Amino acid sequence: MFELNKNYTREFIHTACGGSKQAFLPTKNGKVVAACLRADLNPQAPDVILCDGSASARAAGRTLSGQRDAIPVFIKRETDAFRFVGLFTVGESLVAPLECASYARNSGFTAAQVSRVLKMKRC
Fold first, then answer.
1. Which domains does the chain have, with CATH numbers?
2. Rounded to an integer, what distance in angstroms lies between the CA atom of residue 41 and that of residue 52?
């Protein structure tokens, strides 16, 4: 469906996967269908995904943490250009503030803003 290291628009990702065009973890039918990440907020992506404390991010992170299916992961390169970096599954989900704090370093989030850390595994 997606070619490794090729850029895609959010419109194309939405058409192919479904879900919201704005959410970083778009969901469809109760499942996260992709990850569209910004490097400034997720500096360790695609290996680590940070979820902030907003209701939508908390819900999407909780949903993804319980999924077994692989999702396509994209990293934003420029305005409406998201590079496909592969298919990933969740390897580990951290929610304890002390466990999450170190992952917030060098991201656009403070430790207090991170509600969940998803450690991803390449498929």
1. 7-122 (2.30.280.10)
2. 9
pLDDT band at 1 (very low <50, low <70, confident <90, very high): confident
| 107: amino acid identity, one letter | S
Cα 76 from Cα 13, distance rounded (Å): 12
Cα(48)–Cα(122) distance, rounded to whole angstroms?
Answer: 11
- Give the three-state DSSP class for 116: strand
Query: Is-contact 118 111, C-beta < 8 A?
Result: no
Return the ∠ at Cα 122 (arms to 33 and 2), rounded to 5°: 50
SS3 call for 14: helix
For residue 65, the SS3 value is helix
pLDDT in tens, 23-68: 999 999 999 999 999 999 999 999 999 999 999 999 999 999 999 9
- Which neighbouring-strand residues pair with 86? 73
